[in-house]
Amino acid sequence: MKNRIKAIYRGRGVRTNGRAVYQASQRELWLRKIESAGLRLRAEFLFRQLEQLQLLRREAKRAMLQESRRHAASQLLLQIPEFGPVRIAQIIASVGSPHRFRSQRQFWSYIGLAVVTRSSSDYRFIDNRVQKHCQAAQNRGLNANYNHRLKSVFKAAALGAAKNDAYREYYQRLLAAGTRAALARLTLARKLAATVLAVWKSGADFRSDQVMKQAA
Which residues make beta-bridge pairs with 142? Predict the structure, then answer.
């Protein structure tokens, strides 16, 4: 809905950077910027529809958080830095049970953080004999089949965790070792995913001192 509102102004060459266009207190000001009466009426209807959707969104969020609190894992996972009630609710709703995943690597694959490798010409004919060709597998990025909601959750958490006391040292160590920033954030996201899975499975409290101990 917000995209549709901004599209009206972009079509008339009116800049709408930021969120000011959505503010009810500035509604009349933005409507006066549209010269066409018909288009202005359409924008007014879209603004009114947005207001109703915002009310519905708040109700849906309350219902989601209320349902999330019914799960024992909710309070347990809230101990992990960068995971608030909304992210925890999304994780619980998407995963259901951590015991679906035998290892953290399976969990990484589910949330789109698993590295995919490809190889070809693994075997060759040499002197009429089949011999295995020793060459390193090529890295082809991350797996393409994954849960999009969870990947978004862990990528956003990794951005915040890079500045959080519990994970900052771990992130800085990766950078100091020569790891590119983007790859370091990916590694941090995988670390967060492994932490969530371990805490959820074991039922043990999160301990920040274990982060660097496990990374050593």
Answer: 115
Computed on alpha carbons and rounded to an integer, the radius of gyration of the chain in Å comes to: 24
pLDDT in tens, 56-77: 999 999 999 999 999 999 999 9
Domain membership flag for residue 56? yes
| Rounded Cα–Cα distance for residues 116 and 190 (Å) | 14
Tell me: pLDDT of 216 over 60: no
To the nearest 10 degrees (0 to 180), the angle between helices 148-161 and 85-95 is 150
Q: Is 141 within 8 Å of 114 (Cβ atoms)?
A: no
If asked whether residues 60 and 99 sit together in one domain, one would say no
196 and 173 within one domain: yes
Rounded Cα distance, 200 and 83, in Å: 13
Q: Same domain for 93 and 192?
A: yes
Residue 151 lies in a domain: yes
Domain span at residue 8? 2-67
Write the single-letter amino acid at 104.
Q
